[in-house]
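Hi R.,

Here are the chain sequences for the assembly we discussed:
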Amino acid sequence: MPSALPSGEPAPTDGSLPASAVAELGDGPISLYLHVPFCATRCGYCDFNTYTAAELGSAPGSSRQAFLDAADAELALAARVLGPRPVDTVFVGGGTPTLLAAGELVGLLAAARRYFPLSDAAEVTTECNPESVDARYLEALVAGGFNRISFGMQSARGHVLRVLERTHTPGRVAAVVGWARAAGFGSVSLDLIYGTPGEGLDDWRASLEAALTLTPDHVSAYALIVEEGTRLAAQIRRGEVPAPIDDLQADCYELADELLSAAGLGWYELSNWSRPGHECRHNLAYWRGGAWWGVGPGAHSHVGGVRWWNVKHPRRYSAALSAGQSPAAAREMLDADARRVERVLLESRLADGLAVDVLTASERARVSGLAARGLVEVGSRPEVATDRLRLTLRGRLLADAVVRDLLD
Ligand SMILES: C[S@@+](CC[C@H](N)C(=O)[O-])C[C@H]1O[C@@H](n2cnc3c(N)ncnc32)[C@H](O)[C@@H]1O
Ligand code: SF4
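And here is the predicted structure of the full complex:
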């Protein structure tokens, strides 16, 4: 089952936000995240907030329609709280959004559009499991307004997909990418995972090369994280499956950076590479401290220093909205220092780097030591701005430790 939510202070049942948080937005746009909490089966490594039909059962509030009705109600709540304002990016994630019928997924986007104006230039993404769609499905998504798609490829090796408990075959990804291009998606992204038990560096090279033959516009490559409470964690604890090896994951990262860069996909965030102009604007909004409203069970939101998160179970989520209440479980108000630390944590992961003037005097004093250790650079090359701190390749491998060393 998915992991527990963080604790926080109670969130108002009417969903209201402090006036200062809304005022900070001005007339600016927001981003919308729509979380679809369903999967056909649960992959052994995943602890995202998602449920199989068997886990949900047939109690009222568990159905897809109940979810769609509740998501519509939460969009209406968001529009009441934020007032009319443009939406710059929409991202439908999961779970498996493409477990919904194409008409249902397009209907979810249409609901978002009813409450928030969406410009022609908006980036509208859905995540997609390769086994769950065909050519007609993808055509319906483009006709309904989606212009970006992110396929969960994970690996091109059958034995790796089996350890991950993914249900698609390696060849399926080439087919769906071809259909997506033919349907007219302007941007196609592939998600890959490295460091799966039993995956060697050659397997990972084969996955990267297979991904690159599909000429994606964008690739996300994540180190496999063994999440507590997952089947994979239990298998490793029992010795049935070896644990991922840190040094091998580092080699995988370096190989990804080498092959993706050589193919014209530049890194723009630690785990993300894209062709110029195909960076994911939605994720950049998160990383740059933008405002977004997350609709759906367990979805997180952030507006002007207020963070909140919804109840996780789809039945509780539907029940709250059916009763005319906000589905927020709790919220957190970030003070100026917490916001500054968050900015350091997020912006230091970007290729654009972190504005040095965000750092305190004592943090700034540590920069030269980190640079001498080859972990960060500030204006040391023409492409690195003189007022921004950027991780080197070595620093990217040790990003969490570098930021810990930097912060007061
Ligand atoms: C949660 S999934 C949702 C989209 C879709 N269901 C899929 O699996 O592609 C988003 C991405 O997170 C990755 N992910 C989930 N759990 C992970 C873990 N423990 N370590 C690394 N990546 C993980 C998935 O493999 C996927 O590429
Ligand atoms: S399909 Fe995606 S969201 Fe569903 S269990 Fe697998 S990784 Fe998690």
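The pocket of S-adenosylmethionine (ligand 1) is lined by residues 45-46, 48, 93-94, 96, 127, 129, 152, 154, 191, 193, 222, 224-225, 227 (CB under 6 Å). The chain is about 40% helix and 20% strand.

Let me know if anything looks off.

Best,
T.
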